[in-house]
Amino acid sequence: MTSNENTNRAPERGPIIEAVGLGRDYVRSEGPFLRRTRRRIAAVEDVTFTVRPGEIVGYLGPNGAGKSSTMKMLTGILTPTSGTVRVAGMEPSRHRTRLAREIGVVFGQRTTLWWDLPLRESLTLTRHLYRVPSDLHAERLAELTELLELGPFLDTPVRQLSLGQRMRGDLTAALLHAPSLLVLDEPTIGLDVVSKSTIREFLLRINAERGTTILITTHDLGDVERLCDRVMVIDHGRLAFDGGLSELRATVPTPRVLVVDLAAPVPEIEVEGARTVRVEGPRQWLELADNPARVIERVARDHEVVDLTLREPDIETVVSALYRGAAPERGALAS
Amino acid sequence: MADTNVPARSGPERPRVGDLLRPFRDYRLLAWTWVRSAAQYPLSMILMSLAVAVSVLTQAGAVIILFGHAGSLSGFTVYEGLMVFALAASAFGIADLFIGSVERLGRHIRTGSLDAMLIRPVSPLIQLAADEFSPRRLGKVVPALVLLGVSLAGADIEWTVAKALLLPTMLLSGVLICGAIWVITACLQFFVADAREAANTLTYGGQALSEYPLAIYGAEIVRSVTYVVPLAFISWQPALFVLDRSDPLGMPEGLRYAGPFVAVLLCVCAALAWRFGLRHYRSTGS
Q1: Model confidence at B6, in pLDDT bands (50, 70, 90)?
Q2: A189, A214, B159, B211: which could join B88 in a potential S-S bond, CB 3.0 to 4.6 Å?
Q3: Are A112 and B127 within 8 A, CB to CB?
Q4: Hey, where are the domains in chain B?
Q5: A242, part of any domain
Q6: Which residues in chain A are contacts of B284 at CB distance < 8 A?
Q7: Are A56 and A224 in contact (CB under 8 A)?
Q8: Same structural domain, A186 and A288
C-alpha cells in the first residue's frame, strides 16, 4: 500500500448503493401468432436496500431469483421499470459510462481479458480505457501483483492460465482504476480450495485497507461465511432477508446431515436423535436433531461403521427453507 | 490507491475537445490489441488474408469475363465495368475492415459479452466495431484498391481537378454509407436475435448488387437503391460522374453529387438506430 493510502479517503458520506422500491418487469409474449398474449413477469419487485461504503454484502438467492437482474440494474446494463437506484451518487442507467469508471465488475464465468495476449497487455489496455495515469497504474499494478501473486504469470497468454490465475487477473483488471465499489458475480465458481482462499483473503484485505465496498453473489457458503458481514436473500424477485449471517441461520434452523458408510447394507437405521432420510446400498443419510457425537456413538454401537461425514446445510438449503417458511423438505439435504 | 474517487463525482463533466477524439483513440487501441491477438497465429492470419484476396480477385475475374464476352453492357466497357466493381468492393471492403464486426451483435447478446462491453467506460459500438479486428480483412481492401487504380488508368477518363478531388470524397461517402447500413442492419439483432442472415441480404447482397452498373437491373431496382437503400451512391453515381456519362435511366444529374449528403444523413440514421436499439436492449435485457 502506498503512503498516502488512508489520508485522503473520502469522508464518511451517504450510502454507496441506494435502491428504493426497485423493480424490473419483463414482457413475455405467449401463444400462437396473431393470438399472442403479452404477460408481465416481475423479475425484481419492490427491492429496497442501502449499502454503506466499506461493507461486504453477499447477495444470495436461487438461480432465476432476480440476482443478476438486480446486478444489471446496479451497473446500468438494465434500466429499472420501477423504483430508483443510485450507485456512487449516480443513476446507473443514465450515467452508465461515467459509473463504469467508479466501479469494478467481475463476472466469474466470463473473462474480460484478451485470450491470446499476455495478461500484462490486457491490464495495460485497461489502463488506457479507464484513463489511469501511467505512474498510478504502475504503482497499483505492483501492489496487486504482490497481493495476488501475479508475478509468475504476468507475461503468460491468458489462454494458458489456470482458472484461478485467470480470476486473479480479472480481479486485477477490475481494480486497476481503484473503484470504490466492487461488484462480483460468482467470483469463486469452479475454483480449487487454495485459489478460493487466496481470493477471499485478498478481498478482505482490500476491503480493510482501502475501504472498497464489495457486493458479491455466490453459491459458495464458504465465500459468504468468510467474507460477508451481511447477506441479502432474494427469491421470486423479492428481498426476503437482509441482515447478518448468524441471524439468517437462526431464522431458519436447518439440520445437519450425517452420512454413514457401513460395512454392509442394512435396513434404515433407527436411532435416537436422528432420522434416516435416505438409504443407498451401505450408505445412509441421517438428519440430526441431537448432538452429532452422541448420534455417532449410538450408530457405532449397533453397526460397523467404515466412514462418516458431517454435512453442514449449504446456503441454498437455508435460502430455500427460508422460502418455504419452514424446516427443509425431508431429504433436501441428502442430495 | 487512496485517489479512488478523484475523478468524477464533481458534478456533470464538461465536454472537452480531447473527448471528441476519445472514441477514435479507444477504437485504435482496441483494434491494435486485436491485431496483436491475431498475430499470435501468423500462419492462419496470412492464409486467411490470401483466401480473402483470392475470392475478391475471382469476383473481379467474373466481371472481366462477363464484360469481355459481351463487349459492353449498358454502354460500359470492360475497364468501366471493372471500375464500378472496384468502387463497390473498395467501399464495402473498407467499411468491413473498420466496422464489419458489428454484424456479430446477436452473438454478443446471446453469450452475454455485450454486458461485459457495457460495464466498460467505452461506447459499446466502438468495442463492437473493433471486436476481433484483424489485418486479414485487408485481403479484401488491398486487391479492390489495386483494381480501382487499374480500372481508372485503363478507362477512358478526361481527368479534371474536380474529379481528382471528388472521387476520393465519393469513395469515402461510399464507405460511410456501407458502414451505416452495416450498423443499421446490425441493430435489428437487438430486436430479433437471428436477424443476421436477413441483414446480410442487405450488406453482402448490397455489395453484390452494386458491383455491376445499375443500368443492367432496370428502373424499379435502381430507384429503390437510390431512394430507399442508397446503394447507388457507392459505385454507380460516382462512376457516372467520373465517366461524364448521363444517367441511362434518366434520373436527375444532380444525384451524382449527393453522395456525401446521403452518407451524412445515413450516418445520423445509424447513430439513432444504435441508440434506439441499445435502449431497447437495456430495457429488455434479453
Answers
A1: very low
A2: B211
A3: no
A4: 23-28+38-284
A5: yes
A6: 26-27
A7: no
A8: no
Contact A23, A83 (CB under 8 A): yes
Measured between beta carbons, the chain B residues lying within 8 angstroms of A77 are 115, 118-119, 282, 285
- Do A244 and A297 lie in a common domain? no
The predicted model gives A31-35 an average pLDDT of 70
Same domain for A129 and A221? yes
Q: Which residues of B touch A100 (CB under 8 A)?
A: 119-121
Residues A265 and A235 both lie in one domain: no
Using a 10 angstrom Cβ sphere, with 0-12 exposed, 13-18 middle and 19 or more buried, the burial of residue B58 is exposed
CATH number where A162 lies: 3.40.50.300
pLDDT for A73: 93
pLDDT of amino acid A13 = 65
For B39, phi and psi rounded to 5 degrees? -70, -10
What ipTM was estimated for this complex?
Answer: 0.77
Average pLDDT, chain A: 85
* Structural domain total, chain A: 2
B29 vs A10, A125, A136: nearest CB: A125
- Residue A323 resides in a domain: no
Decide if A178 and B30 are in contact by the 8 Å CB cutoff: no
β partners of residue A106: A184
Please report the residues numbered 113 through 132 in chain B whose beta carbons come closer than 8 angstroms to any beta carbon of chain A: 113, 115-116, 118-123
CB spacing of B4 vs A180 below 8 angstroms: yes
Beta bridge partners of A44: A24
Domain that holds residue A27: 17-250
| Residues of A with Cβ-Cβ distance to B117 under 8 angstroms | none
Report if residue A322 sits inside a domain.
Answer: no
How would DSSP label each residue in B137-165? GHHHHHHHHHHHHHHHHHS-----HHHHH
Report the DSSP beta bridge partners of residue A103.
A181
Same domain, A184 and A234: yes
Please indicate, yes or no, if residue A90 is contained in any of the structural domains: yes
CA B42, chain centre distance (Å): 26
CB atoms within 10 A of CB A327: 13
| Interstrand relation of A257-262 and A283-288 (parallel, antiparallel or unpaired) | antiparallel
Question: Are the beta carbons of B37 and A115 separated by less than 8 Å?
Answer: yes
Q: What percent of chain B has pLDDT over 70?
A: 93
Residue type, B99: I
Domain end, chosen from A211, A227, A250, is at A250
**Domain of A264: which CATH number?**
3.30.70
